[in-house]
Please model this.
Amino acid sequence: MGGSVSKALARIFGNKEMRILMLGLDAAGKTTILYKLKLNQSVTTIPTVGFNVETVTYKNVKFNVWDVGGQDKIRPLWRHYYTGTQGLVFVVDSQDRDRIDEARQELHRIISDREMRDCLLLVFANKQDLPG
Model:
């Protein structure tokens, strides 16, 4: 029953696509979150040099998620991914108190860019389940 309702709504309203940019400092957990959403399981990751792109479907919305590396040398390249972004997921390692201010500065730099002014923002405080 629920599946047929979802299919009917998709036919009426159409399927939607949304471009999501996932950014944050290195080791914040962006790639782990992406693949947990995509595969519904935890995966072993290595530092992202460049980017990962995956489509995650939820109900009738396809989220094209761009997970871009967060090392300090890569961050100046983030702006090249802004065009067409409709939502920003900014991932923060909530256990890394020494770099919270650095993360805040990077987030302010991103949302100050005119290309990102109208996009939706989610600040994801990651690693809250870890002791510390």
In short: Helices lie at 2-13, 30-39, 100-112.
